[in-house]
Amino acid sequence: MGYLRLALRQLIKNPAFSAVAIITLALGIGANTAIFSIVNAVLLRPLPYPDADRIMVLNESSGPKQDFSVALPDYFDWRNDNTVFEHLAATHKESRNLSGIPGREPERVSCASVTRNFFNIIGLPPEIGRTFSEDEDKVGAPPVVVISDRLWQRAFNRDPGVIGRSINLHDQSFTVIGVMPLQLTSPQDSDAWVSIMRRSNNPAWMDRSHHPMIFVWGKLKAGVTVDQARTETAKFTRSSRRCLRISSANTEPISDCSSAQSDWCCSSPARTSPICLPREEPRGRGSSPFTPQLALPACKLFANFCSRVF
Asked: pLDDT digit string (tens) for 217-232?
């Protein structure tokens, strides 16, 4: 207690020093807490979906650090050749103007165009209503939309009568058919999901050389490991120029398409192929693409800051 009283007297006698010390400690503790919160939310905490360890994100690559989105014809090929995934779903992120809601100003919302089996991969049933039927997920299908719990709360005050109502997305009328639970915000903080297959006859999208920011989600069959998935998918990637990268939704990329992995990187120009790579999908509320590559420099920066201050 004597030492504590002495320390308090010294702090009182030197208010300027005390203020600097307290601010320094507050900044250090705050920065440490912020970094841990980000790392925990983005890298450590699993996706809030059933069997999250079996959910993968797939993209194409032409070499190390040369990943890019998927051509729609390639997705169709992967889906047809697939033997290791229960489902392979295509997703395309965009934002749209939401209007047509009485008493509300138009707002910009984050939307995702997805194939109907995206919801099978996520494994969460709707809170109310339903997801797309097979007839609603094809060219010429009626425009329907599934909305998030957040949008249901914000725009409709959780009115169950929202099912069957019409809303406008980019001045096109969509009928609300379902509301997903609060946990679902994938891909990348989405508030509305529409059918991607309604637009699949877009000539630009059917060009195999065009990669219109489509990414593929997959759910491994029970008992299938990522390594087994790589082995199986390599059988149909050998005839392609590019690689398929299989990515876990919770972890850092397991592999790169490099010369050391010749069974992944192939030279025939027949068609592009997928790559299996476990990596983080921006989850939930925080859609920041924070990855382990960024986490390490951030931690080093914080350590350097602490060493200089203390």
From this structure: 999 999 998 888 888 7
